[in-house]
Structure formats: structure tokens, C-alpha cells
Amino acid sequence: MRVVHMDSGLGNQMLDYAEYLAICSQNKDEECYLENLIYELPQKDGMFSMWNGYELERIFGINPPNIKERFDAKAWERILQKVESSEFWKENWNYAPYITKAFEEEGIHLKNLRKKAEIPSQAPSSFKRKIRLWITHFFQTRIGYHIKRHMRKLLAHRLIKKANDGYDVFRRYPSDVYIGHSFAFKYKGFGIERIDALVREAFVFPIIEDEKNKEMMRLIQGCNAVSIHARRSDLLFLNGHCYKFGFFRRSVNYIKKHVTNPVFIFFTDEKSVGWCEENEKIFGLNFKKDKVYFVDWNKGEDSFRDMQLMAECKHNIFTESTFGFWGAYLNRNPNKITCAPDPMILATHSF
Questions:
Q1: Strand extents, DSSP E, 26-89
Q2: Is the dihedral of CA 18, 233, 151, 342 positive or negative?
Q3: CA 155: distance to chain centroid?
Q4: pTM
Q5: Degrees to nearest 5, angle at CA 199 with 296 and 170
Q6: DSSP string, 239-258
Q7: CA–CA separation, 96 and 190 (whole Å)
Q8: Cβ 270 vs Cβ 296: under 8 Å
Q9: How far is CA 236 from CA 156, 230, 243, 315, in A?
Q10: What pLDDT was estimated at residue 145?
Q11: Is 34 in a helix, a strand, or coil?
């Protein structure tokens, strides 16, 4: 058997399922199982948010074979308790060795092929931690950010090739392995086009029935709509540089030069609308002259509607968010302009 891990929010789940499809396509001799037990653990301080839990079945009707089916109820409860007691989230989300160990103790032996293969015996030295923190801090400064951005653009071809050489999503796996959750398909060169038809067949959104989203869909389909995924509240630790160092402004300026009468539609959380309205210059917009709309009403289990609407826009601007990535990827416009902050990310342009 091959067991594919999944966790986190909808965008990550979709990447994990796309990887599951790729693995199944090349490993048909044995069954592939999904493993998503983290959704059953209680939320603890330091854990990444699991948002609305496993959403692929509710939204898309996706429910592949789950490794949970191979254990009885008592064994599964013991597995959950062991994984929870490991507090893997305190080890930089190093879940893999603890999950495979818990499975082994209940009779299923899997070779862990995830990057972090071992339970750490000791923490890194304080000197190494200081060096890492210094490097991280430098690239969070304006000078460091732009040095990194230009270097990645210059070396993009080499970086993509190196990443592709290091990980083959479509490889043939041996039996009884624990794999997945690489996010590879978010990046260029990993071959998602090989399963594009399967991906689009899997991710068909439910028909919109509420009037507010119907009205927005009509507007989007009747103009040169450009989505701006300004996800702030929970992802500023990852996307803060996009607001501080000009990513949105550069993207919007490019759109304005290449798209006739663009209409900009913000997709953001309700708490961030006011901030966006007060910081139009960060986005390269003039809210008195440019046509701008905000979508902030799709919440909780209806959050996926934002992705659905973004996918109907003619063009897309998105950050490191996998949710925003899918809005751009599922855009069917053959002439779309999709803007990402990193040249490694699968998009038509990077800024």
C-alpha cells in the first residue's frame, strides 16, 4: 500500500489530492490510501489551523480510501492519542515519524519517505539557531527581500530544474510507504499538466444559489475582472513581504498596461477590508478612479465560494496562499495573466 498524508485548509487539501491522483496514476499495482488524522486531533497552541476540517468530500464529493479503514475503532483511538502526545507541532510540524510509529505499533508497517524521517534526538545548537534567525531576518528586510527576489528571477530556471530533479511526483514507489504533502504542484515544472484533466474533473464547484454570489458572478463574467487575493489575518507571517515591498503594486501596474478596462475584485477576510481601503497605494490603485469591488461575505463552510469566484475572473493576483493559487490555476481563460510573488510558483508572471 501507499499512504498519502493530508492536512491544513482547502488549498492544501487540493494540492495533496492532486498529488494523490499523480501517485495513483503511476502506482496502480497496489491501493493508495489517504491519511488525514490531524483533523481528528484537538487544536492546540502552536498547531497550524485545520480551518473547516476535511472539505473535499463536502465541496467536491471526493472521498478516497482512508487508512483509518484498516484499523478498528479502539486501535484508531490509540493511534490518535499517541500522535497527540508526541506534540509534533513543537518540532516544526514533524508529524511523519510519530504517525508511522503509531501505525507500526498497531500492526501496519510503513517506510517513512517524508523529508523529516526521524524523531529528533536533540535540538539544533544555539549557534545554528542564531545563524538561521539572522538569515531569516535579513531576507525580511527591504534590501534583503529585493536581493532575494532578483536572484531568484535570475536563477529561476536552475532552481526549478534542481527542485524537479530532487522530487518526482510521478515516481514509482515501493510497497508500504508513507508519502505526499510535498506541495510540488504549486510550483513550476512538476508536471501537473499530465493530470490536468483529472484535476479539473475532481474540482468542480457546486452551483451558486445565493443572490449575493450570483450577482458577483454576473459582474465577473461581464467584464475584465482581476482578482486580488489579499489574505492577511492568518498568513501575514508568510505573506507580509507582499504588502511591504511592492508585490501588489507591481502586479497591478502590469495588469493596467496589458488589460483593457480592468475591474479589480478583492477577496479578503471581513476584518481586512477596512485596512485595504485605507492602503490603496500599497495595491497601486486609486479607489476613486479605478473600478474596485470587495468580496468579504463568504465565511466558514462557504469560504470556498471565494475560490470559485476567483477562478471565474479573467486574471488573478495571488500571494503564497495555496487557496489563492487554486483560484488562479482553475481560471480557464486561455489568455489569463496570473501574478505570483515568486518565479518558482506556477503562474504566468512573477513580481
A1: 32-35
A2: positive
A3: 23
A4: 0.92
A5: 130
A6: HHHHHHTTHHHHHHHHHHHH
A7: 23
A8: yes
A9: 25, 10, 9, 23
A10: 85
A11: strand
